[in-house]
Amino acid sequence: RRNGMMEMATETMAATPRRVRKDAAATAKLRRCVVTHATMPRAALLRLVVSPEGVLTPDVAGRLPGRGIWVTPTRGAITDGIQRKAFHKAFRGAVKVPEGFADQVELLLLHRMLDAIGLARRAGDAVAGAAKAEKWLADGRVGLVFLASDAGADARRRWQTLPASVRCLAVLSGDEI
């Protein structure tokens, strides 16, 4: 059923005149990282806001009120921003950066990723286990494989040869997956 819906959407887009149809990548809102100064789509950056108490707060859901700044969501960019006081400069004032801010951001992003994986599993768009994943891979239904970071050598060899269209990430432990 999903394939039929995709075909209908593709046919509709093909029938739409080119001057009316907008490319999603071209219309994506771009933001600039206050630390690296790289311009990227919003989805690739992390929004930070200042709470009413003046505390720097990560906005992983992108819904907190107030003026936000954008930063590359890497530990290096965040610690560099703290050291160079880039967040103070971006907010044009004194900002309290909590102790262990980079750890807090990492934990929040981990929880958000695990929530997204859980939602995909409940929706039937993700599976767990090598046997199920191999069946989905044979059916061409895989776009991303999470390999446990603590996986053994046999498991790593098993998932070494994936099609070019499939990414393999080893950022979560077996318990987290």
pLDDT < 50 stretches: 1-21
Strand content: 5-15%
Q: Please state the CA-atom Rg, rounded to the nearest Å.
A: 20 Å
Order of neighbouring strands in the sheet with most strands = 4-3-5
Q: Spell out the helices and strands N to C.
A: HHEEEEEHHHHEHE
**Approximate helicity band:** 25-40%
Question: Biggest β-sheet, characterized?
Answer: 3 strands, antiparallel
Category by helix and strand content: alpha+beta
Total strand segments: 7
Mean pLDDT: 84
Q: Looking at the structure, what is the overall shape?
A: elongated
Helical region count?
7
Distance between the termini: 29 Å
Describe this structure in words.
With 177 residues, the protein is of the alpha+beta class. Helix content is 40%, strand content 14%. The chain has 7 helices and 7 strands; from the N terminus they run H-H-E-E-E-E-E-H-H-H-H-E-H-E. The strands form 3 sheets. It has a 3-stranded antiparallel sheet. Strands 1-2 form a two-stranded antiparallel sheet. Strand 6 (144-146), helix 7 (153-158) and strand 7 (167-169) form a beta-alpha-beta unit. The radius of gyration is 20 Å and the shape is elongated.
